[in-house]
């Protein structure tokens, strides 16, 4: 069988199904997976952001506390710087004596500026009056103190209070004298102002609080201080501001006096380690995320393709398992499944099952070959598809057997109409490779619920109906009827009884019908014909039980029995041939010729005396086994007669190819004499052709002398029929032979 390459409806269905599947794949697999990755990426990002913000926060806090520390450290340092010159006997003496400005400047003024970076210095007497001023990098007039007096004097007063009430615990190693220090705005600028008393270092000079001179040191915080701070502690863009205004990315830190009053702000771009790390990591992270996305996308695509392929091959396998490869129709297995599900479907109120069987399809295969047979089946499938509303309800369940299901049919008339359309469509000749082929189809129908609601029951009944349609004469349809079931049961009974009959001696008997020579009306041979005397039913015709025996099996036993009986009954008879009918079923057995040869040998019978009557079906047998046997039998010397010639598949043209010795012209032609002008012509043509081929002819069913005369006139060799003799028992035939020998001419018949 060829594999059909065209796509079948089922496959299209499969393709449609896979079209809806990508959406499911995206919804079920791709989206959740990508959502998961996006969520994970966001989580990682948020975590990083959180930790970097935390790191930034810590860093800023540290920078703030560093600033605070540096400022307080500066306060302390300035006071400490001052003590290098204010705790000194010489200084006490110099500030009290008529003023030696040069000495004061070089030790308490410009010296402090040069070595410690103080921006201004003032010396106040016991009444807080300036006696010396150093400002603007040079010695200034003491009156310059006036510009800062209002801010500084309160500090000086505070220090004097401390001098009046000295701390009983003393000042320790690092701090030698009391002092007052404050962060202030001087001349609109932030400054550390530190006031220290000028006191004896040896303790030799004692002074009262109101007599003690004070040294005021000023360090502005917005000039060199801030640039040194930025440089030493790596503060980016550090500046001083008096308002809260700042630019993006700048941070403010308030500069507060010891009273907590905000004087101004340090502004800088804080070092943010979190942000730095984040900005370094971010591109890498984005890269990794993109890479993971990419890899995943590729993996998913590959996976998708694989699963699609798998699904496609699965669908294809499924289709192959459920469909016939030649036609793409559902196969038997699929038909069974489908019928079960249709029957289980409560929506179906009725269901018809049609069983189709092609007539004469076997002959097409045998004579034109299987490729033509295949093409015919394909074209026929096309015709069925055009007729049946739902082509998926057609199935091919065998070589030339089809089924059609019709759920929910409205009326029997609808099904009848469908059957008629199918029969008409199939009866139209098929043109295949230039051959006009005539076939037919027989249809059996069973319906649910009328004939049953179970699959096996419906199938069996449709099959029975098909059998009836066929035996009623092909190209017909039949609905299952109860009587058919009865007939089937009857047939089964007959089958069983026939087997019983074979065991008995009385029931199956032979009759013999003589064959007469047309020339001189002598008996030249006999044909053995079987009779069944049924104990209850009476005589049963061979036309009834031979087909049953052929189908059910005992035909071989019957054939053997007939031949043995016929050969032994006729052993001494003065005739040249004994004809025995042989079924094509027997000839299909490869051992048949051998069996006949053995039988002849055991009965010591010359092979030339036996004539086997075969029908044309023996010559159209697949595999040619029948013909093989026929050739072997002829080689042994056994004669072969072609029975019922003219009724079968053969044509006159084919006659030349058949390996036979005699032709028996079917009685339907003889009986047509005088009615249909053609029949005489046909018989004459057959006789002439047979003679030209060296074949003998026998006319069957000769009932009138007119028929007999005509047949003699056209040169037919032998005659057989009721006119001459009916089939009779062996004893009667013996008597007949004796009389005909006695009278020397033809017997008048025994009816
Ligand atoms: P057939 O081989 O064509 O046998 C001749 C049939 O024609 C016989 O019917 C016979 O009685 C009938 N016949 C003879 N002369 C006339 C006549 O003038 N007019 C009419 N109308 N009929 C006539 P029968 O004996 O009923 O046999 C019927 C068929 O059964 C046979 O047809 C043959 O095919 C088959 N048959 C009979 N015996 C055997 C047998 O032993 N083996 C096999 N395989 N088939 C057999
Ligand atoms: Ca015959
Ligand atoms: Ca015949």
Keywords:
single chain; 751 residues; alpha/beta; 20% strand; rod-shaped; disordered N terminus; binds ligand C2E; binds calcium ion
Write the layout of secondary structure elements.
Blueprint: H1 9-86, H2 89-96, H3 101-108, H4 110-116, E1 120-124, E2 130-135, E3 138-140, H5 146-164, E4 180-186, E5 189-197, E6 214-220, H6 224-233, E7 236-241, E8 251-256, E9 262-269, H7 273-322, H8 332-344, E10 351-359, H9 361-368, H10 370-387, E11 394-398, E12 401-407, H11 412-427, E13 430-432, E14 435-437, E15 440-448, H12 455-471, E16 477-479, H13 482-503, E17 508-517, E18 523-534, E19 538-540, H14 542-552, H15 555-569, E20 577-581, H16 584-587, H17 592-603, E21 610-614, H18 625-636, E22 639-645, H19 652-655, E23 662-665, H20 667-671, H21 677-692, E24 696-699, H22 705-714, E25 718-719, H23 730-743
Parallel strand pairs: 15-16, 18-20, 20-21, 21-22, 22-23, 23-24, 24-25
Antiparallel strand pairs: 1-2, 1-6, 2-3, 4-5, 5-6, 7-9, 8-9, 10-12, 10-15, 11-12, 13-14, 17-18, 17-25, 18-19
The chain binds ligand C2E and calcium ion (CA) (2 copies).
């Amino acid at each position: 069988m060829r594999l059909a390459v065209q796509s079948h409806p089922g496959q299209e269905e499969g393709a449609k199904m896979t079209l809806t599947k990508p959406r499911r794949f995206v919804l079920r697999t791709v989206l959740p997976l990508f959502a998961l990755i996006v969520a994970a990426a966001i989580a990682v990002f948020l975590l990083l952001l959180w930790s970097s913000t935390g790191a930034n926060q810590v860093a800023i806090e540290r920078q703030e506390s560093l600033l605070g520390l540096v400022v307080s450290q500066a306060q302390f340092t300035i006071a400490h710087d001052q003590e290098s010159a204010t705790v000194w006997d010489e200084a006490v003496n110099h500030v009290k004596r008529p003023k030696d400005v040069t000495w004061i400047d070089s030790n308490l003024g410009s010296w402090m500026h040069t070595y410690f970076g103080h921006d201004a210095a003032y010396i106040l007497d016991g009444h807080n009056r300036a006696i010396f001023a150093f400002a603007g990098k040079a010695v200034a007039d003491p009156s310059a103190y006036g510009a800062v007096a209002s801010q500084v004097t309160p500090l000086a007063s505070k220090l004097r209070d401390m001098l009046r009430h000295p701390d009983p615990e003393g000042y320790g190693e690092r701090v030698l004298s009391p002092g007052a220090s404050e962060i202030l705005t001087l001349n609109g600028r932030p400054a550390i102002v530190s006031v220290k008393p000028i006191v004896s270092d040896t303790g030799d000079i004692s002074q009262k609080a109101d007599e003690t001179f004070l040294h005021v040191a000023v360090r502005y915080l917005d000039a060199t201080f801030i640039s040194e701070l930025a440089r030493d502690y790596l503060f980016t863009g550090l500046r001083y501001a008096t308002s809260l205004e700042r630019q993006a990315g700048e941070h403010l830190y308030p500069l507060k006096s010891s009273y907590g009053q905000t004087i101004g702000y340090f502004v800088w771009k804080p070092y943010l380690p979190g942000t730095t790390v984040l900005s370094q990591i971010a591109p890498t992270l984005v890269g990794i995320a993109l890479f993971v996305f990419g890899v995943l996308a590729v993996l998913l695509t590959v996976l998708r393709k694989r699963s699609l392929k798998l699904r496609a091959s699965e669908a294809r396998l499924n289709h192959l398992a459920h469909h016939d490869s030649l036609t793409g129709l559902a196969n038997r297995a699929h038909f069974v499944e489908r019928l079960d599900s249709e029957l289980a479907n409560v929506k179906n109120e009725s269901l018809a099952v049609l069983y189709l069987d092609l007539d004469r399809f076997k002959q097409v295969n045998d004579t034109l070959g299987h490729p033509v047979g295949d093409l015919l089946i394909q074209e026929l499938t096309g015709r069925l598809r055009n007729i049946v509303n739902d082509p998926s309800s057609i199935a091919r369940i065998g070589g030339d057997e089809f089924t059609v299901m019709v759920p929910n049919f409205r009326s029997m008339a609808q099904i009848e109409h469908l059957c008629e359309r199918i029969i008409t469509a199939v009866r139209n000749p098929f043109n295949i490779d230039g051959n006009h082929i005539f076939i037919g189809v027989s249809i059996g129908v069973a319906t649910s619920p009328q004939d049953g609601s179970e699959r096996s029951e419906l199938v069996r009944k449709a099959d029975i109906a098909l059998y009836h349609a066929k035996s009623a004469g092909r190209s017909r349809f039949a609905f299952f009827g109860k009587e058919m079931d009865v007939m089937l049961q009857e047939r089964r009974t007959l089958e069983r009884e026939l087997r019983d009959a074979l065991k008995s001696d009385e029931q199956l008997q032979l009759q013999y019908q003589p064959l007469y020579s047309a020339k001189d009306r002598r008996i030249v041979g006999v044909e053995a014909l079987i009779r069944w005397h049924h104990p209850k039913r009476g005589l049963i015709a061979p036309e009834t039980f031979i087909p049953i025996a052929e189908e059910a099996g005992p035909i071989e036993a019957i054939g053997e029995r007939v031949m043995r009986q016929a050969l032994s009954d006729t052993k001494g008879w003065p005739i040249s041939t004994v004809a025995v009918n042989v079924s094509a079923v027997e000839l299909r057995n490869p051992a048949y010729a051998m069996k006949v040869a053995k039988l002849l040998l055991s009965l010591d019978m010359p092979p030339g005396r036996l004539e086997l009557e075969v029908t044309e079906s023996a010559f159209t047998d697949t595999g040619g086994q029948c013909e093989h046997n026929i050739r072997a039998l002829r080689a042994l010397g056994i004669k072969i007669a072609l029975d019922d010639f003219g009724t079968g598949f053969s044509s006159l043209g084919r006659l030349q190819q058949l390996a036979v010795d005699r032709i028996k012209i079917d009685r339907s032609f003889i009986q047509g004499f005088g009615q249909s002008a053609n029949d005489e012509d046909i018989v004459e043509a057959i006789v002439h052709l047979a003679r030209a081929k060296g074949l003998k002819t026998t006319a069957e069913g000769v009932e009138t002398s007119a028929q007999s005369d005509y047949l003699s006139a056209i040169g037919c060799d032998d005659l057989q029929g009721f006119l001459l003799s009916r089939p009779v028992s062996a004893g009667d035939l013996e008597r007949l032979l004796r009389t005909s020998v006695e009278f020397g001419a033809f017997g008048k018949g025994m009816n």
